[in-house]
Amino acid sequence: MAWLPACARPSNESVAQRPARNVILFLADGTGISTVHAASIHGHGAAQKLYIQHMPHLGFSETSSASTWVTDSAAGMTAIVTGEKTHNGVISQGPDAVRGKQDGRPLKSILEYAEEK
User: Among 67, 73, 92, 109, which one carries the catalytic annotation?
Assistant: First the structure.
């Protein structure tokens, strides 16, 4: 996951003087350091050649699901954007959800929190 808080700003204003209007969240599903490193070597013949490897703010997360160590995209993304784990195959619902059988408690995403402000 890479956070890019300010893509461009006027040269006469510093970031500290005004709040960010937008936040862009890049998420590379199923990607870790080894995948990014391999992509750089494959695409450019050398390590540390991808733009993402030089972003000023970069974060990684481990998002096992509520019931298994191997996480699918639905449960992994739910954990990232809501801060809560759920089961594989479930999107933005609590771990009381059963895929295809029972809805769970709705979880509020980071976007919904941002819209409230």
Answer: 73
